[in-house]
Design brief:
The protein has 627 residues and is α+β, with helices and mostly antiparallel strands. The protein contains 21 helices and 16 strands.
Length: 627
């Protein structure tokens, strides 16, 4: 007979993202010392150190330092007077737009520490209470978080051991502790100064591509494409800030790859601003079935990216552009890296690029996983674990094996309290989850993500159990924030609970739990082995698994950060002076830039094509769609 639900271990273990159902988070802390582009580009280093927030305020409004530019509003701005941007996050103490890792961390601290140390409206506030609540600014001012050092941070130490009589059962689960450490360690208070790189025009970039592709063997040229970072360097990014953009590019192409190995893009210039890729390295030379109807909608993955990246994916014509287009046999052989990675990581394109169709069982069979691990006849090859999380949510986790190459296939289901029979009563039942969150290893060692609805179909977005987010697009940019270090640690509670209450269970139930629910030592080893594959892949990319994810930050930066005059000019491929001089001839949506204001991405996108035609009317190479 089953144990009564009320006797199950209802321990409050904090807000649990769990193993697979993680929220989007992201901010990057990689530095130029980790940048493998330094070698491939033939330079001594990309500059900078590990990232953090800019205490000087130089990192205003995303990557744009326009608000700190000299000169009168709408007037001429000497390009040399524009300060270099060594780090492009808000000042230390503020969170960047889309930084859900930071939001996640602050919520966890509030959950566990707020009762005694948080905002208090009573007569006698508890020790250490604050009128403002436990904001990041408050935590830094009190010294409870030490930027860059979780080990020296009192808040981290308090949450990893019994504190002031707090029982161990009330401490965060291991996965939460990982996230807290990653966030705190990524808070580097300042980045080393760096020098502006010379402005590079679209004509210069296209000339470099034309020379590069012409020097390649003829049979390689049709598979050659280019990705660029001039939108960042021309906006003033250098050092650590530019390195983050570069690392996000490296991670993105490999996170969207079905190729067998990590392959770094090749820098064709000394500054490391233009990169060449070969479609075959990432299995991008295959047709892509975006509609999941069994037919390819585009000839290859690059074309899918081009169509998704409009209006930033522009065909050019002119002496250099014509050479590149002819040799690569495509009208758009070049994409800005930020627009390309954002396009590829959207919920509509990410699954087809990785071959994840609408029917999840078909995808499992293609991977060699076999039947649904929860519903299939149980074997010891499938590992089980379950625990209780925030607000009495139960989470079941199972791990199956992908055979070739060997890697993990993890499924997680989260059950709301009182929604169905407890996992502590029905150990192997499908406890009415709304969705299964799935994490699995790619052939190159990186991790991929998807979500399966109850009916077995793939979901493009999922509601994650957190208080600060609605449904989030499923993919590396969102899920990968909390999983940037691999599989989050999990500690099963079912096995210990049943073992401690053996007399409450019949022998069949007891034996089944002991057989299939995984002992802690074995589960830790499996998680470590799967995460090691991910870590090895990140190491090849020059990315630290212990720091916030660069890919997520650049993805959300593209989507959420306000666009000022400096960033707008850089993305349009001109200097700020040129943009301001032509502003009265450009689409009216750009008018706020003349007043040193900013616009959002949707407004900028609507004006982009028309503005590019005006600004490049006299260029050696110009957009082909212009009248």
């Amino acid at each position: 007979m089953a144990c009564d639900r009320k006797s199950a271990p209802w321990v409050m273990t904090g807000v649990v993202l769990g193993l697979l159902g993680s929220a989007a988070c992201g901010d990057s802390g990689q530095g130029a010392g980790d940048d493998p582009a330094a070698a491939s580009a033939g330079r001594g280093g990309a500059g900078g150190a590990t990232g953090g927030s800019d205490p000087s305020g130089a990192g205003m409004s995303g990557v744009d330092g326009s608000a700190g530019s000299t000169g009168s509003a709408g007037g001429d701005i000497a390009e040399e007077a524009l300060a270099p941007i060594a780090w492009d996050d808000p000042p230390l103490g503020s969170l960047a737009p889309g930084d859900l890792l930071g939001q996640r961390t602050l919520e966890m601290i509030e959950t566990h520490c707020g009762r005694c140390h948080g905002q208090y409206d009573g007569v006698e506030p508890p020790r250490g209470a604050t009128d403002a609540g436990l904001t990041l600014r408050v935590l830094l001012d009190k010294g409870w978080i030490v930027p860059g050092s979780s080990g020296d941070s009192p808040a981290f130490r308090a949450l990893t051991m019994a504190h002031a009589g707090t029982p161990t059962s009330l401490l965060p689960v291991p996965g939460d502790v990982e996230l807290l450490a990653r966030f705190v360690d990524g808070l580097i208070p300042e980045a080393p100064e760096c020098d502006l790189l010379p402005f590079q025009s679209a004509d210069q970039a296209l000339a470099a591509m034309a020379a590069d592709v012409s020097a390649l063997p003829a049979d390689v040229r049709p598979f050659t494409r280019y990705l660029g970072l001039t939108y960042a360097s021309n906006a003033g990014l250098c050092g650590a800030a530019l390195s983050r953009q570069r690392l996000a590019l490296f991670e993105a192409v490999n996170a969207l790859s079905l190729g067998p190995a990590i392959v770094l893009p090749h820098a064709i210039d000394d500054a490391g601003l233009i990169y060449r890729i070969d479609l075959r390295d990432y299995a991008w030379d295959r047709g892509i079935d975006r509609d999941d109807d069994g037919n390819s909608d585009v000839t290859d993955a690059w074309q899918a990216l081009v169509e998704a990246a409009e209006p930033y994916a522009a065909a050019y014509q002119g002496p250099d552009a014509d050479v590149v287009s002819t040799e690569t046999t495509t009208s758009v052989p070049f994409l800005p890296a930020n627009a390309a990675l954002h396009a590829g990581l959207t919920s509509s394109l990410y699954p087809p690029l990785l071959g994840i169709g609408a029917d999840m069982q078909t995808h499992r069979e293609a991977l060699g996983v076999g039947p649904h691990p929860v519903f299939a006849e149980r074997t010891t090859d499938v590992k089980w674990a379950a625990f209780v999380g925030h607000q009495r949510q139960e989470e079941l986790v199972v791990r199956a094996q992908i055979p070739s190459p060997e890697r993990g296939y993890w499924m997680s289901q989260v059950q709301e309290p009182d929604d169905a029979e407890s996992i502590f009563d029905a150990f192997f039942d499908d406890n009415s989850p709304s969705a299964y969150h799935i994490t699995f290893g790619l052939p190159n060692g990186l991790t991929a993500y998807t979500v399966e609805r109850r009916d077995g179909t793939r979901a493009e977005a999922a509601k994650i159990h957190c208080s600060y987010c609605d449904e989030l697009a499923v993919g590396a940019a969102n899920c990968g924030v909390c999983h940037s270090g691999g599989i989050l640690a999990v500690r099963d509670q079912v096995r210990d609970y049943v073992s401690a209450n053996q007399v409450s269970f019949d022998s069949e139930s007891y034996d089944a739990v002991m057989t299939y629910y995984t002992p802690a030592v074995e589960l830790d080893a499996i998680i470590a082995a799967d995460s090691a594959l991910h870590h090895a892949a990140l190491e090849q990319l020059g990315i630290s698994a212990d720091r916030p994810d660069p890919l997520s930050r650049v993805y959300h930066q593209f989507e959420l950060d306000a666009i000022g005059r400096r960033r707008a000019a850089a993305e349009l491929g001109v200097t700020v002076d040129v943009l301001l001089a032509a502003l009265d001839r450009l689409p009216g949506e750009l008018a706020p830039l003349g007043e040193n204001g900013s616009i959002d991405r949707a407004v900028f996108s609507a004006a982009f094509a028309g503005a590019a035609c005006q600004l490049h009317a006299g260029s050696r190479n110009r957009p082909a769609s212009c009248p």
